[in-house]
Amino acid sequence: MKRPLPLSTFITLNVGGGLLILTLVLGVMIQQGISRLLNDTQYARADALARQLAIVSLDAIMVYDYGTLERYVRDLSSQPDLLYLKVQRDDGEVLAEAGTEPGIHNTHNVSATHPIMFGKQQLGTITVSYDLSQSYKTMLQLSLDGLLGVFILALIYYFLLKR
Asked: Which of 26, 70, 114, 146 has the most CB atoms at less than 10 Å from its CB?
């Protein structure tokens, strides 16, 4: 016949198990928050670059200095996680382009577009895409580190209960 657990052991097991579950739930929530923050930061970065390039491109478009636009785009494309950069006139002519245009369903990038405006008239658009794969690698590493931490806490809890 099996002896029931003493009340103190029963309470300790339930409290410890509850704390482990709480740690896992909080870890997942924190991971989701950080992931959203990283994505939002990359989008803000792409949007800021598109806005700045739209302002700088206006003068070059007004005087038909497309060589300057190509130089801007070439210099900016040297950023390590910049996937794609395009300056396009409103009639569809691409004035400068660097990188490879990401696919429509590619979830590993974030894109921003901004109009090139002269007063109320739109002269063209700027499209910028950044690669999110480094952010995803960072989030995966953080998640694995968090799981390792929870596993170590569970082991410590188990050995403390054995004592």
From this structure: 114
